[in-house]
Design goal:
By secondary structure, the chain is α+β, with helices and mostly antiparallel strands. Helices cover 42% and strands 24% of the residues. The chain folds into 3 domains: 50 residues, Orthogonal Bundle (Arc Repressor Mutant, subunit A); 46 residues, no CATH class; 94 residues, SH3 type barrels (Roll), CATH 2.30.30.100. It has a 5-stranded antiparallel sheet, with helices on one face. Strands 1-2 form a two-stranded antiparallel sheet. α4 packs antiparallel against α5 and α5 packs antiparallel against α6. The two termini are 45 Å apart. The model has no long low-confidence stretch (mean pLDDT 88).
Length: 220
């Protein structure tokens, strides 16, 4: 839908399939499904498809402070996370800009708020580690983590990865340590290796990321 909105001339299923990284057959099926759901797409296979004029999602409405917060937030993510997450932040900013209407678009894109790098900005190695950890958190996969503490004490533990937190000096991984039966916070730049155990876990009350945060702020 986004690809079609950005065009004024018909585009073939072959070109759309190449842009989206899918087969032409899949593109024909997806276009048919969208048309069946009421999407105003004109055209047919072999000729090209185009979106009916005047079909747009309603503009999102934000006040100036909300737009400033969104602009700075996406810039912070772009400046201080892995390449994949930084790319996602930039794409999200583009989508926000296209959805807020012309009156607000320039102010959002030309915001006077900027974000720079910090000691927590990942290197290519720690950026790749960050991506692997985010995937493990999302998929609830238990990991075997080799870690070197700030006092140079080496340890290996089986853990449930729960969440990532960024500070000015470092990123921290919050885990539920199966060995200690407690939460632990590990600096990403001190993690020496991670390995997938092949096991998954279910969130349990008292062992979730939210529970660790509540303990830290004293609200638990």
């Amino acid at each position: 839908m986004d690809r079609l909105r950005a065009r004024t001339q018909p585009v073939t299923a072959r070109d759309l399939a190449a842009e989206m990284g899918v087969s032409i057959r899949t593109m024909y099926r997806d276009i048919a499904d969208l048309q069946g759901m009421g999407a105003p797409i004109r055209g047919e296979g072999g000729i090209g498809y185009v979106m009916e004029r005047g079909y747009f999602l309603p503009s999102l409405t934000f006040d100036e402070e909300e737009l400033a917060a969104l602009s700075l937030g996406t810039k912070l993510v772009a400046a201080r996370t892995s390449d994949s997450l930084a790319g996602a932040a930039k794409r999200a900013a583009g989508k926000i800009a296209s959805a807020i209407g012309e009156a607000s678009r320039e102010g959002f894109l030309e915001s006077p708020l900027a974000a720079g790098t910090s000691a927590a900005t990942p290197t290519p190695a720690t950026g790749a580690l960050q991506d692997r950890l985010r995937a493990a958190i999302r998929e609830r996969r238990k990991l075997e983590i080799s870690y070197l503490s700030l006092s140079n004490r080496a340890s290996t533990r089986v853990a449930r990865p729960l969440g990532l937190t960024v500070f000015d000096a470092a990123w921290l991984l919050t885990i539920w340590c199966e060995t200690a039966e407690d939460f632990r916070h590990l600096r990403l730049d001190r993690i020496e290796a991670i390995a997938d155990t092949g096991q998954t876990f279910r969130h349990e009350r008292g062992k979730r990321f939210a529970d660790a945060l509540h303990r830290e702020d004293g609200s638990a």
